[in-house]
Fold each of these.
Amino acid sequence: MKKFEDLGFSKVDLDRETRTGYPEVIYGEGKTAEQIRQIMEPLIETHGKVMVTRLSEEKAEILTEAYPDARYHAISRILLYGSPREKYGGDVMVLCAGTSDLPVAEEAAVTADWMGCKVNRLYDVGVAGIDRLLAYREEIKKASVLIVVAGMEGALPSVVGGMVQRPVIAVPTSVGYGAHLQGLTPLLAMLTSCASGMSVVNIDNGFGAAYQAALILKLATEGVHHETALS
């Protein structure tokens, strides 16, 4: 099989699924609809599936005309073609602090589902109304991996991290007022959290959080002796 397809303006990585477990994902911002269509073509031919992130509705309309089986999720701004070949054990719970965080939370949820995870959502449970979060304490404790999305001061992941004995992936968002600094304030708050076992991805990076969560469930499903068995 070819390692990549040279389109001139793009060299499409066709070997990535073999190396990493997932095909190359297309970042939609900064690319024209026609460029994305040309990149999608060899990925679909090779893998039977493709994901495009950060895609505008205007570009999505053009691409769904070219690929009628593609599905566009407007809130997450993700275009999907095809489905995962396997489903992992366990589940990912995506939590967000407020409704304004939904685009990032949905980017995480849609991505994790497409990568083979069972996904549960728990939205608008920020610390300003802590009873909303505590009302779902038992459901939260049952999750295998938790993706916690928050803007403003970014306190929610620390609270959740103190409630569970599972990996917590924190996602700061660019939602907030002036001193929030477009997400820098919650990013630094999450990086300096006293809650152990928490990792942090970049601002608004729901995709990256979901990718990490999927790798955790993939490893758990395959078992700790997977690499030894392959060798």
Note: Residues 4-81 form one domain.
Amino acid sequence: MNPEATPSFKIPKYLRRTARLLNRINVSWATSFALKLFFKPLPFPIPKREEDMRSRATKHELLTKNARDFLVFELRGEGPKILMMHGWSGRGSQFFELANFLHDKGYHVFSIEAPEHGELQGGTTHMIDFVDAVEESCRRFGDFEFAIGHSLGGMVLFNALARSFWFEKLVTIGSPASIENVVGDFCSKLEMDQRVAKGIIHYIESQYHIKAQEASSDHLCQVYRPEGLIIHDQHDQDVPVADARHMHQKWRGSRYLETQGLGHRRVLRDPEVHHAIYDFFKN
């Protein structure tokens, strides 16, 4: 397998052992343990290759409506505005090659760095904080014609549509189709069973006053229908390609690009992907 087509992270063995043990002993304890991990982004150093974008862009330090710190990196251009939203444990500068490419084509690019991510990493957060960051960015910088979401970022952008913000064209890259799939995959990596997954979903729904199904991309794409481009790699080990194929069936009129050998992360840096997105926005 291509080395780039490996998972973005692997849960340490000691955590998997603890999870398996708790799963056998007491599902309630196991669910509490899983929840502590679920809302804690993994800390990653910012790669040197991203430093140029971070230093060259205008950096905005902002607050969500719930006073969560987040950043927006802006590359000014005369063309339409594009909003970029990274995924779980990602960074705003993870889009650096795509952002530079689109900026060179004249677009005005904004890339969000969500609460507790990138240079703000350290605490706990959740998808609603991401959506709040998108909402504040739209209020601060005005309407965005286009948006690009990687991984969880795609679902975040769909949830922004549900808050009455609009993107004429929306690109999802390596994005999950549903919250149930996200939770199920997380529990699978921890080697926990569906009882724990159900407990996590119940917690999310009761704590954040949402219905998991109604906040999932495969539901929202049928309610809000921007022009769509779905990009996913066959060898993505973080989000199965089946999610993208399912989304393509649900998202009426969407375009679909399936790459090979790029995995979950390198797909963001692939020239073919860059040109496909540019052509989608331009035409």
Note: The radius of gyration is 18 Å.
Amino acid sequence: MNVLATLGNGTLMDVHENMRRLLERQRAAHLAAGALSAAQRVDWLDRLIGLMVDFQSEIADAVNEDFGGRSREATLMADVFAVVSSLKLAKAGVAEWMRPELHEGIFPDAEARVEHVPLGVVGLMSPWNFPFNLTFAPLAGIVSAGNRCLIKPSEFTPVSSALMARMVASAFDPSEIAVVTGGADVAQAFASLPFDHLLFTGGGSVAKHIMRAAADNLVPVTLELGGKCPVIVSADASIADAAARIMTIKSLNAGQICLAPDYVLLPDGRVDSFVEEASKAIAAMYPTLAANPDYTSIINARHFDRLQGYLADARAKGASLVELNPAGESFDVNSYRIPPTLVIGATDDMKIMQDEIFGPLLPVRTYGAIDEAISYVNGKPTPLALYYFGGGEEEQRVLDRTRSGGVTVNDVMTHAFAENLPFGGVGPSGSGAYHGKAGFLNFSHARSIYRQSKMIEAEYMIRPPFGEAMRQFLSAAISR
């Protein structure tokens, strides 16, 4: 059930008031109950795991319907299995993560510790490309940290969003976790609520509006964005291996992934080899594309037209387009399917090299020396991920001289599968991180607690009148 329906629908002002009332209900419940125990947090995590297991078939059906065609196995892998893994890791670690950190006090018998306490109520705004993963995986950190949560999923996947609302309502009281649905106007109103923390996953252009709305209430924000994730292939790397791994992720979900490779930098003279190996990789994975249940459609007409516009612009400005279409099929325009396409000789004046692609199109450029590739990457906004194929001293040079949210060496996107590693961007690609203990810490407040010593020096140390003893102490203490 859509929680808003239980609170009453009406004008946007009514909807905003209903969401505010729900937030206040969660905050009141949080304050009344106090911090959840480890056992209570495990119970909530178990409930979330149960939802993913029990609703897995409906999840696959809902996502398929929203996309107009998406691999059932891809959904079960990315939107169910990956979420269950996140939740189980949090369940196994939460008791240890909650233990106070002991620190040295000013006096021998003083006590100093840090307790990671819940923030309160976290707002979660999730996107459409992996609707269940990017809603329920962050809950591993939010819930393990002891928070309550109000969720606003994407309006681009209405079937999935409605299912989320029904799932959550079946396992949680609205004072614990709740889902609200609606369009962009509801999302803007949602972002303006006085949460204790707000997590937004999506594009940078929308993130600016989210931050402005949150700023009115001084709400701290975690942003999981994207950007143009580069791939640098070294002269010593296997082109066949690199091409197969790159195209595996570039074709997964038809490239509609914030971590998908956005362009490839190849050594001079290796383009033809890359094209050949990329073609082989796609043919092995997708002998056909037009009706292949393993290949995903573009989410809607707007994004389909956007991608076609990139191709038209690149072609008009001199790029060579290599369509990887093993069966040479024609595509029904209403299916919103686009075959993986290499854009050879992409230049910076092309729109495809300026925007995050979010589709199965892959620009290919070349470089001479590795420093040329590094400089090119550094000349663009900091990406969510960087991928490097190679090794040795050059690998370390690339790592030392580039900046990105995360890195995978000799593969693509694998660092995000390691649930115990922090996942997040930096600068234009985001702020804050989650996954594993990093999520617990991100959605907690590190609260310092100090119990003063009973020694008489503790009482009189900083109390006037100051005498010779204080002067000698300060003289000795203020030194190199």
Note: The first strand starts at residue 101 and ends at 103.
